[in-house]
């Protein structure tokens, strides 16, 4: 028999009488449960909620969506330059980049194709730029060389003694506006977002054949549980508690409130990546601010 708290969580939500979307038709509270309401969790939940017959719940341990990693990222729309030729990450980045630009344009989410300048300060770094240019050509990502005359005309304060490669498809997006849209559209599609609800345990039902039971806690309230056919773990760094290892890299991030006239491009050093790092980066952000990433792991 369910506890009162469990019944409140599972049955107290607005239900819409939808049939389950899978062929198993399990006796579960929801067809899909997404853990973590950052930008990834919001995007996944929104897409699932759009499926015919789906019933999707999104669980977030904090009091609002997008308050951890998603509110502290670079807000860069990556071109997909730094990943392996035949990797899934490259495929998803290239496809996702264009889908994101399309979504932002369609729904008036603030964004801009700023382009990115990859700077070389010496011959060794220029060799890395040439390799990157060749790799970009192989995977279908446009890049071009920027002459010193063009660089001086467009960005006179940028110095690159070895040379510059430009990535014109790199851009920036207002991550908070994006998450606000995803959250609203998820709920408009009939999804249920439950905040201040931390997932404490997940147990398979009948070895997974009967779905999964998710145990949750909310502050000092007693533990509750729901059942779902499918669990999607989008808990960010917290997701790593269920994986073998968590590889972190140290770096410093500085926020510049004003730099005078707004620069149009995003320069990043071409230092050869090591231990998940790509060197130093200077990112333009919406609202006139900029961030300086020093020695951070960036894709």
TrEMBL record:
User: How would you classify this enzyme at the top EC level?
Assistant: oxidoreductase
Q: Which terms does the record give in the GO molecular function aspect?
A: (S)-2-hydroxyglutarate dehydrogenase activity
SUPFAM superfamilies attached to this UniProt entry: FAD/NAD(P)-binding domain (SSF51905)
Return the EC number: 1.1.99.2
Which terms are listed as keywords in the entry?
Answer: FAD, Flavoprotein, Oxidoreductase
Q: Which Pfam families does the annotation name?
A: DAO (PF01266)
Highest taxon in the source lineage: Eukaryota
Question: Which residue ranges does the record assign to the FAD dependent oxidoreductase domain?
Answer: 33-242
Instruction: Look up the record and name the cofactor or cofactors this protein needs.
Output: FAD
Keyword Oxidoreductase present in the record's keywords: the answer is yes
UniProt keyword Coiled coil, yes or no:
no
Gene3D superfamilies noted in UniProt: D-Amino Acid Oxidase, subunit A, domain 2, FAD/NAD(P)-binding domain
InterPro entries linked to this entry? FAD-dep_OxRdtase (IPR006076), FAD/NAD-bd_sf (IPR036188)
Instruction: Write down the chemical reaction(s) this protein catalyses.
Output: (S)-2-hydroxyglutarate + A = 2-oxoglutarate + AH2
Q: Which family does it belong to?
A: Belongs to the L2HGDH family.
**UniProt-recorded name of the protein:** L-2-hydroxyglutarate dehydrogenase, mitochondrial
